[in-house]
Amino acid sequence: LPLLILSYCTCTHPKCSGYSTFRLCAKRLPCALPIFAHLDAGSSTFNNVVKTNLDEVRAVIEDFNKVAAPYAKLWKGQTNPAFESWSQDRADVELLTIICNLSFNRAVPNPRLLNIHYEPFTSGVYGETSYEQMQSIIDEIGFRESDVFLDLGCGVGQLVMYVAGGTRVKRSVGIEINDLPASCGEAMGKDFLKWMKWWKKKCRPFELLHGDMLDERYRNVITQSLS
Known about the structure:
It holds the Pfam family DOT1. Residues 1-227 form the DOT1 domain. By secondary structure, this protein is mainly α. It contains ten helices and five strands, in the order E-E-H-H-H-H-H-H-H-E-H-E-H-E-H.
């Protein structure tokens, strides 16, 4: 059970601390919360931990790990409704969205810098799709295992990863021409895989390509996704 290794998550980034991950674990394992009142969602102690204070974060995580240990032993080898989200090999919509947001925040320290790479009122700017909208597309279309998802102008590639984690497509591919989004996408991809592994969730192969979608070298990638 991933809860047992939370004490090794020592990141102090305000958007992605071990405490943030801990709170997510607590939410997805509610049966453990009543055992110690100071971790209850309504507790001021629980809510007022300074997320950039490593000692405070480590203390509350170590407390939680002590409680989680017997539950981890209980979970092994049996099915328990309280542990359903942990035992599934695919991430549900809520967890997948959280993982994507977590990885994005770690890879893109200042999202506003991404906007300066796109000149207003040009063909390079054509809107952005949210995770909610992408999920609606997934639900409507119902991607098959033989499908290839292709995002032209993928930015940092968050939708490419979302599809890889939320469907069973053959593979998910994104192409981005601008340097900064492509660089952030590479970092996000590594972080996304790390968190998927940490939660013990599977995802389909994905690839983020840096270049012009009109370049001849991407012709096969694009045409294969259409076949």
